[in-house]
């Protein structure tokens, strides 16, 4: 069971930036794609946001965040990042770090490990 811990959420105004960080237990990231999903207020499901392959050669983004969010990873430090720029009120959600068992596309994936989530609130 992988252990994932997110940090970096907060309350910001529209147009601001935040950087989320996810740290994992030793070996948690090894060989697997990692990424972020979010759960907006009042929604039951967690929506795909961004992900990065183990090699870091491939990145995946939902259309709603393309050009504004950047996912990256530091394999040696077992750390995953999500740089969020030009935040919008509709980005308000709990953001979860995700360990992917399978990642084929933004709509075809299987997550087998989650962090506890970090709240991001964007005011207008």
Question: In words, what does this structure look like?
Answer:
Strand 7 (69-74) and strand 8 form a beta hairpin. By secondary structure, this protein is mainly β. Helix content is 0%, strand content 55%. Strands 2, 4, 5, 6, 9, 10 and 11 form a 7-stranded mixed β-sheet that branches. Strands 1-3-8-7 form a 4-stranded antiparallel β-sheet, with no helix packed on it. The chain has strands at 4-7, 10-13, 18-24, 34-39, 47-52, 59-61, 69-74, 79-84, 93-105, 108-114, 118-123. It contains no helices and 11 strands. The radius of gyration is 13 Å and the shape is globular.
Would you spell out the secondary-structure blueprint of this structure?
Blueprint: E1 4-7, E2 10-13, E3 18-24, E4 34-39, E5 47-52, E6 59-61, E7 69-74, E8 79-84, E9 93-105, E10 108-114, E11 118-123
Parallel strand pairs: 2-11
Antiparallel strand pairs: 1-3, 3-8, 4-5, 4-9, 5-6, 7-8, 9-10, 9-11
Descriptive terms for the model:
124 residues; mainly beta; 7-stranded mixed beta sheet; 4-stranded antiparallel beta sheet; 11 strands; 0% helix; globular
